[in-house]
Amino acid sequence: MSTHTEEIQVERRGKAGLITLNRSKALNALNHSMVQQMTQALEQFEQDDSVALVIVKAAGDRAFCAGGDIAVLYEDALKKGTEGAEFWADEYRLNVIIANYSKPYVPLMQGIVLGGGVGISAHGSHRVVTDSTRIGMPETGIGYFPDVGGTKLLAEAPRNLGKHLALTARQVGGTEAIAAGLADYFVPDSAVENLVEKLAETGSVDVISEFTESPAEAFNGVIDQMEQAYAPENVQEILENLDALQADGAEWAADAAKRIRRNCPLTLTVVLEAFRRHNGVELGKVLENEFVMSAERVKLFVCGA
Q1: What is the pLDDT of residue 172?
Q2: Which of 16, 41, 50, 232 has a Cα-to-Cα distance from 301 of 20 to 30 A?
Q3: Which residues are catalytic?
Q4: If you write DSSP's letter for every residue of 128-185 in order, what string do you get?
Q5: Contact 127, 180 (CB under 8 A)
Q6: What's the pTM value of the predicted model, to 2 decimals?
Q7: pLDDT of the residue at 83
Q8: Residue 1 domain-assigned (yes or no)
Q9: 177-218: per-residue pLDDT in tens?
């Protein structure tokens, strides 16, 4: 099987199915066609007994995937079209396919990984980050919420790290992604191509461990403080905790509080409520709820809210 388009490349390499996002000038941002092609490729690879695992990587050296193509979706909303709803429905379906995939799914999360890029990677079974990884769910910074199952992924992140990532809309490195439960393995960028070849040769994810390195300490050793600061279930109390830590000289807390305060308070409240509702809930149900939430937020965008 080999399919190449301007936006996505699909091939069988040895014992691996290989999907390459090929829209590097747009930071491999997902459009509807890419979502559909990726879904079709995964379904075909799943039925192909000669394919032992699937690898997803990206062309270029800047981004794995910078999310959905927001400009196209916004223009569609202004015209009161249906493309946005159709895109989200198919994108969310793809997220469920990835989460429930019967074969090992190995995303190579090099460079920028944002929004929809998290959706096509963090739901996978064997998630690889590198020294160039910059991962985040930046939606609260534009008055939106972490979708593609983000309200589940981040709600279930250990030690309240998901609250930190969602409320601040920060991007973090691969080490932090592993600490937050969004990735599993740290592999140097210089070893990624050799990893791809070894996976294709053996068809076994056991070889990933041959290329991994121990990541540095995540979040500069302040996870204990973060866990306590983000323990409350409302934004105001979280900010009070961060302000108290800032007064004691915690620079990370000052930065976090500044980021949170410049985001929409209503959006942050909606996000925390979604966290409460979606923690431990089956992904399909979470995405059904997020689909409804997406439609409501788009209406507000168009109205200028």
Answers
A1: 97
A2: 232
A3: 68, 116, 139, 147
A4: EE-TT-EEE-GGGGGT---TTTHHHHTTTSGGGHHHHHHHH--EE-HHHHHHTTS--E
A5: no
A6: 0.93
A7: 78
A8: no
A9: 999 999 999 999 999 999 999 999 999 999 999 999 998 899
In a domain, 3, yes or no: no
pLDDT of residue 304: 47
DSSP label at residue 82: S
Element (H, E) at 44: helix 32-47
Q: Point out the residues of the chain with pLDDT beneath 50.
A: 302-305
pLDDT for the residue 1? 60
What is the spatial distance between Cα 99 and Cα 285, in angstroms, rounded to a whole number?
Answer: 13
Task: Tell me the C-alpha distance between 177 and 166, whole Å.
Answer: 13
**Ordered strands of the 185-186 beta sheet:** 2-4, 8-13, 16-21, 53-58, 105-109, 128-129, 185-186
pLDDT for 134:
98
**CATH number of residue 21's parent domain:** 3.90.226.10
CA dihedral 111, 67, 59, 134 (to 10 degrees): 0
Domain carrying residue 272: 8-302
Q: How far is CA 300 from the centre of its chain?
A: 24
Asked whether residue 219 is assigned to any structural domain, the reply reads: yes
> How many independent structural domains does the chain possess?
1
Paired with 171 in beta bridges are: 136
